[in-house]
Every structure is written in C-alpha cells, then in structure tokens.
Queue: 3 jobs
Job 1
Amino acid sequence: MTRGTEPDPASPDGGPPLDYRRRPCTECPWRRDADLGKFTDSDFAKLEATNGIPGTEAPPSAAAMSCHLDQPDTAHPLRLCAGWLAVIGYHHLAIRLHVIANRLPPAALTADADWPALYDDLAEMKRHRPNRSQDLSTMRSSASQA
C-alpha cells in the first residue's frame, strides 16, 4: 500500500499509514446502485476470499480488497476499497490490527452519511447479482442461432 494522503500518524512499529479510498467509487460493487453484472465469477471469488462476518471474522492472513479501479503503476495503486472497508473491514482481523496500530483510522470502517447506500454484507450482494449462468446460456443460444 502507498502512503495515505491524510496526516495519519505512523504506526508504533514505524509502518506507514495504509492508503484507502475516502468514499466508494462510482462502480463500487458494495453500492446498492452498482451494476453487479459487470463483475465476473472470478471477481466474486476474490470478494469471498476477503469476507468476514460477525463470529466468522476473516483471519489476519486473508487478502484485503483494493478498489477495482486502481491499478499498479498508476497515480493511486491499490488503495483499499472504501465500500469494502465500511461493510467488511471490522470483520477482517488484519484490518482491525491496522486500526490498533494507527495505520488506518477507525473512521475508515464507517460509511459517511452522504455515501450511497451499501449492501449489508456479501451474502446480500450475491443475492442481488444477476443470474450469470442464465446470461451465459442466453449468449450461447444467440450465438448458435447466428
């Protein structure tokens, strides 16, 4: 992660603050108004690998979710996703440890009042995802008729 843009204090062990988005991007999958059809099965598998819920928190070794719009070697490589932090962050043990170590402010784990509505958890997001197998069979059927 790159150094944050806010004046967050360095952690007690000298580690730099983590960089994170300050609000969900326009295509954030955690937004209720996002087009979840844009996200592949592979994308959802990555979300599943970062997921934690009350009583079944993601272990410290679990991956964290960066914004899907950020790319390596750009102005903002791999900032933590604001939507993911607000929904899942508290249930991810590595993120809690970063908060304790002052590498991430506690406010990063809370949606601001002016944010768009977010899904409550990954299970809810998956329930709202379009049926991709139906989409694929429709595509195959259309292709065979051409």
Note: Residues 36-145 form one domain.
Job 2
Amino acid sequence: MSKNSGSFSGLEFPLHCYGEDGRVKPPILLYLTAFWLCKALLLTLISVSMRENTTALLTVFYPDVNEWYWHLVPALPGLVVALFVSFNATLRERQVGDWLNWVKPLLLFGLFGQMALQVKTIISLQGQFSWTLSVSLLISIIATLYIWRSRRINAFVRDARDD
C-alpha cells in the first residue's frame, strides 16, 4: 500500500479531488480565499441592495471612505482569480495562454495587500484592540499560509500547464 492509504491507483490526492476529465479540481478554500479578498466588493453589493440607507453598512465596516477605496484594491486580484478558476474549462478549451499560472501570485498579492491595510488600520488605532481587525488579520494570515503551502493548488496549476 502506498503512503496514501486506501489509494490503489497511485493518485496524489483522494479521488474526490479530481474532476470527470481527470484533472485536479480547485480546492474549496481557493474559492473561499478569493471571496475573502472580495469582501469589500461584497459589502458594496449588499449595501447597494439595501433600499433605506445604502451607506449604513459601509460606514459600520469602513468609517472612512478612503479606507473603503483602499480595500477595493486587494479585492481586484480576488475577483480575477475567482473568474479564472470559475471559467477554467472554457479558458482551457480556447487555449488562452498560461492564465492559471497567475492564480497563486494574484492571491498572495491580494492577501499581502489586505494584511498591509489591516496592519495600517491597527497602527492608526494606536494598537487599540478590535475583534473585527483581529479576526480579519488572523483569517488573512491563515489564508496566506494555506495558499503558500497548498500542494493541491500547486497540482491544480501544474495540471493546467500540462496541456
């Protein structure tokens, strides 16, 4: 038996990690990380859908409008990655270059940018404790470590390169 107990075919990952075409599927945490980066955009969509007071929700999370604008910057790599990964089969059929090679660097760029903004906010608060900032920074750090070390994301990107 190989080191992957229960694996008879020598696959690198369990069978549920592969699609019908035999390629490695993107992990759920890749999508969650991309959506985590897009939280400023998601809050914008939710606040616009509120008919009574559209700015109420945004002022809770972003009291300063400039802070909201800065948080849209890391959201763009997350949105691009979500689109790339969602349309990977279509892009693969049309042979659109090495688009998937940008997934990991874009996510890391967005996460590092988001962490920099969170640290900037902590510094501007002069180290005053905030649960939302603490949890947000912790999630960003965990997501960065996951994206950096994930064998499955590396296999997903490598699998797309093998075309």
Note: Residues 1-7 have pLDDT under 50 and may be disordered.
Job 3
Amino acid sequence: MTNHRPAYSDNELFIFLISRERKHFEVIYTLYSPVIYGFLIRLGLAEKYSEDILQQTFITIWNKPVPIVSNNKLSFLSWIVQITIESTKKYLENKGRKFIIHQKSYPSVSIEFTDVLEHECKVQHIA
C-alpha cells in the first residue's frame, strides 16, 4: 500500500515561496503543474488555453505575496486553485469570451460559456 501523504506540508510550501529560491519554486511547479493542468482540462478548456493559463498561474504564484497562514486554515492547494480561477477569468476576459464560473469548492468548479450559445444562435439564424 502506498502512502499518499504529500512530501511537504502546506506551511513548508508557503515557506518555499517566501524563500524566493528557484529550486523551491521548481519543487512546487513539479508537484502542482500536473494537478492544475488536469483541473483546467476537466473544466473543458482547450489545451492551448490550459497551457497559457497554467503558465500565467505560476507567474502569479511567483509574484503574488504569500498569505500569512495562521492555524493551518488555508491549504496550499486551495490557494493555488483560487489563483488558477482568477487567472482563468482574466485569460478568458482578455480573449473576449463570455462565461460564468460556478464555484462551490474545489473540485466543484465549472465554466459555462455563454458566448457559445449566442454564436450557435447567430449561425443558425444566418443559415
């Protein structure tokens, strides 16, 4: 039986970011980029969108002030998912897409593209 316990605690991961050391950031990227990319793909985003958003998410993670974590109330994954959702919103807005993000809690997040319906109606109306 394998142990699924993370190699690092949430506090250690936040400390890695505070240290601003490239080797620590590489650890975080290695651990979380597949998780975030998979999350974006499961949202129904195209691979190109997912790759771009993944890149923007990690740029934001590197540049964003690290939250002060008291009593372990904020998980590292929750923090990264929130940044990913914000990066997704910005990316889609910059692409001119119309959408609604339905968010309860990770992994219960979905995107509804409202411009697809508008586009389909316009195409049917023209034809």
Note: DSSP finds five helices and two strands in the chain.
